[in-house]
Amino acid sequence: MDDMINRYLEELREELCGCAGEIHDLAEPSGEEYHSAEVLCRLLEKYGFDVERGLPEQPTAFRASYGSEKPVIGFLCEYDALPGLHNGPGAAYNGNGGYGHGCGHNLLGVGSAAAGVALKKVIEDKGLKGSVVVYGTPAEETLEGKTIMLKHGAFRELDACIAWHPLDRNECGEVKYKAIASVEFSFHGKTAHACGSPPAGQKRLGRGGADERGMQLFKRAHGQGFLSPLLLSGRRLKTQYRPGFCQSLVLCEGL
Ligand SMILES: [Zn+2]
Asked: Which residues, chain by chain, have CB under 5 Å from ion ligand 1?
């Protein structure tokens, strides 16, 4: 059966590489992967999957299915890019904030979709029982896509689910990860010009201030020893004025 799958995927090589290249060049941010998702939806549709574009709360998620019999085998596609990694030559270090595919979600998305297409072919050709569901899971880099899908009941239909990630070696293994929690804090105050009238601002917090205050609040709620901070990020701030509103996203990993 391995030979059959390899031969089949070899036939599709050019098309699959084309899709991976297209998603690489699109390099869309988490939650805004409209075109990248469409590349995969079209591929899956072409090979006989019923595609549902957009899932609750996430317009760039999708569900592509084939068959109705048990067991139901799932594959997960990711396709979002990372900020500051610009795909252009030499641009990775210029700090221009452009998006790029650093860890290869363009390959991940196409690889998982291709695995689904190949399994469908095997089920058909060998007359096996079973169905395939390929999920488009957006916003992986911001750690929220699959959580939102889970909340709305995705994945429950599956008997088994397979995912992969590009790496510097080829291996299968059981990978364990720490639990993660995230809390978003919003600070409301009064906007003031940063140079002209800074004292007019109320409860003003800059990027660092929002993160620091967010961490204080998180530790007060959860205790010091329970979770350790993983990443802090003051968001949506501009520097030329004291913002009347800012947010901090606190991500914490389990100890
Ligand atoms: Zn990744």
From this structure: 103
CA of 105 to the centre of ligand 1 (A): 6
Provide mean pLDDT across the span 44-69: 97
**pLDDT confidence bin for 215, thresholds 50/70/90:** confident
Residue type, 155: F
Burial of 97 (0-12, 13-18, 19+ CB in 10 A): exposed
Q: How many CA atoms lie within 13 A of 54 on its CB side?
A: 4
Residue 211, sorted as left (phi over 0), alpha (psi -120 to 50) or beta, turns out to be alpha
Instruction: Tell me, yes or no, if the pTM score tops 0.85.
Output: no
Domains and CATH numbers, the chain: 2-162 (3.40.630.10), 180-253 (3.30.70.360)
CA-based nearest residue to 205, from 180, 185, 227:
185
What are the backbone dihedrals phi and psi of residue 188, each rounded to the nearest 5 degrees, phi first?
A: -110, 135
